[in-house]
Specification:
alpha/beta, 4-stranded parallel sheet, 4 strands
Length: 142
């Protein structure tokens, strides 16, 4: 049975409160590691005005520029459009839709932290995203 289009790529939404640190790092790593094989979104339940400058600096250290990213508000539409929703401390603010995969990553909040404190958070996010890429792109269709 031939499909005119390839099967849709998996989509992931990363959510934290301010969309200024953890979710931005995770989205950047997933985009960097998976390329165009995964659709990536990030949002916050109470978005900040800008991405945390220390987070921008910590990501620049590993060759990923997120300086132009802008925190986005979490919408029900973004959740509905995603296959996997990964929350990072947003609590009950995330809307729930049946049929989605929800993961909650317990990570320290980089807000108010310097680059030295953000590096271990960044590295843990990278490790988790690498595992996620393996799961999403393994072709595991059952």
């Amino acid at each position: 049975m031939s499909d005119p289009q390839p099967s849709p790529k998996p989509s992931v939404l990363f959510v934290c409160v301010h969309n200024a640190g953890r979710s931005q790092m995770a989205a950047a790593f997933l985009t960097h590691l998976a390329g165009n094989r995964v659709e990536v979104r990030s949002a916050g339940s109470a978005p900040a005005e800008h991405v945390n400058p220390a987070v921008v600096e910590a990501m620049a250290e590993v060759g990923i520029d997120i300086a132009a990213e802008i925190p986005k508000v979490l919408t029900a539409e973004a959740v509905q459009a995603s296959d996997v929703v990964i929350t990072m401390g947003c609590g009950d603010a995330c809307p729930y839709f049946p049929g989605k995969t929800y993961l909650d990553w317990k990570l320290d909040d980089p807000a108010g932290q310097g680059v030295a404190a953000i590096r271990p958070i960044r590295d843990e996010i990278r490790a988790r995203v690498q595992g996620l890429v393996g799961e999403l792109t393994a072709g595991g269709r059952g």
